[in-house]
Design goal:
six-stranded mixed beta sheet, alpha/beta, D-Maltodextrin-Binding Protein, domain 2, transport, disordered N terminus, 14% strand, SBP, 9 strands, SBP_1_CS, Polyamine ABC transporter, polyamine-binding protein, three-stranded parallel beta sheet, Sperm_putr-bd
Length: 361
């Protein structure tokens, strides 16, 4: 399951490389880790958008620790590299919520010493004891978001509010909509519409969701996680299923584009910071986590990245315009209906079977 949550695609392999789609400049980005790790160096393995030159310089000035970063664009890429290299020399990694569960099961993450963390009490209650990592024993949440629809408000007479909008307006939307190229997200959204769990392990329910998607299939322009961006900006699409972080960037660029989280509920995702069991510098790792937990750092990351911060103290430092933006911060009423994607073990085969039938027939 490759999660969106690749804000950018492609591996930045050069120092100071400017990622075109995110607009973030990475400092000291390396193509691969060095085997040796000095005590005054922090080795990060992170998503492309989560570090920039200014952030790294600020941390280094405060701690005297130099930061070296490798980047990835999918959780599975990160996991595969760590398993292939025996953990490499990384001090810290950035797994998403469901990947934290997988890595704990594989004994790849070090249990955190809570006494060494400063700022955990800054988190919103929702993130203090998440179901994917009870009491944040192995990870610290850094950003979060939802899955929903971005749409062209000038071309849709009636804006979408829930998943069933696609079926109610099927002919009007024909060949001008895209859904994510992600079995769990797409099937999950339909399951939610039908009144089931996003993480259903009932094959009868999965089949019902599949049949609903079959009814819609020939009016879907594509299953796309990335290509929809240019198409909706140009007007070729009027609606696309996407992640809130991606939508936030585009809605700031084009006022006619709007985003909604389906009112019946959707997926709620979180990206975290964790320490691999093979950490190269545990002292620097805790320094970095505590730095990222600072309210002013959390607020700056939220503003510049366009992601919601789980840091309550950081949230309070954000401008009211951002605090009240429903793309980043949906209402509690909607969030209470959202679910996190959870690993479903061998039942993944059922999702994959129906997804293959849907996308290949």
């Amino acid at each position: 399951m490759i999660r969106r949550r690749e804000f950018c695609t492609g591996l930045a392999a050069l120092s100071g490389f400017l990622t075109a789609s995110c607009g973030w400049k990475l400092g000291d980005v390396r193509a691969s880790s060095q085997e040796a790790s000095a005590l005054d160096e922090l080795h990060l393995y992170t998503w492309t958008q989560y570090t920039d030159t200014q952030l790294l310089k600020t941390f280094s000035a405060q701690t005297g620790i130099k930061v070296l970063a490798d980047v990835y664009d999918a959780n599975e890429v990160m996991l595969a590299k760590l398993q292939a290299s025996g953990g490499g020399t990384y001090s810290l990694i950035y797994p998403s919520d469901y990947m934290v569960q997988k890595m704990v099961d594989k004994e790849l993450l070090k249990q955190l010493n809570q006494k060494r963390l400063v700022g955990l009490d800054n988190l919103f209650p929702r993130f203090e004891n998440p179901e994917y990592d009870q009491n944040n024993m192995y990870s610290v949440p850094m950003s979060w978001g939802t899955t929903g629809f971005i749409y062209n408000s000038e071309k849709l007479e009636k804006p979408p509010s829930d998943w069933d909008y696609l079926w109610q307006n099927q002919k009007k939307l024909s060949k001008r909509i895209t859904l994510l190229n992600d079995a769990r997200e797409v099937m999950g959204g339909v399951l939610k519409m039908l009144g089931y769990s996003y993480n259903s392990q009932n094959e009868k329910q999965i089949k019902e969701a599949y049949q609903k998607l079959q009814d819609l299939k020939y009016d879907i322009a594509a299953f796309s996680t990335d290509a929809w961006r240019n198409q909706i900006m140009s007007g070729d699409l009027v609606l696309a299923m996407c992640y809130s972080s991606d939508a936030y960037k585009l809605t700031r660029e084009n006022a006619k584009l709007k985003y909604i989280t389906p009112k019946s509920g959707s997926s709620l995702w979180t990206d975290t910071i964790a320490i691999p069991t093979t950490t190269s510098n545990i002292e620097a790792a805790y320094e970095w986590i505590n730095f990222m937990l600072k309210p002013d750092v959390a607020a700056r990351m939220s503003k510049r990245l366009g992601v919601a911060t789980p840091n309550r103290a950081g949230f309070e430092l954000l401008p009211k315009k951002i605090q009240n933006n429903p793309t980043l911060f949906p209402s509690e009423e909607i969030l209470e209906k959202c679910e996190r994607l959870s690993p479903v073990g061998k039942f993944t085969e059922v999702y994959d079977r129906y997804w293959t039938q849907l996308t290949s027939s």
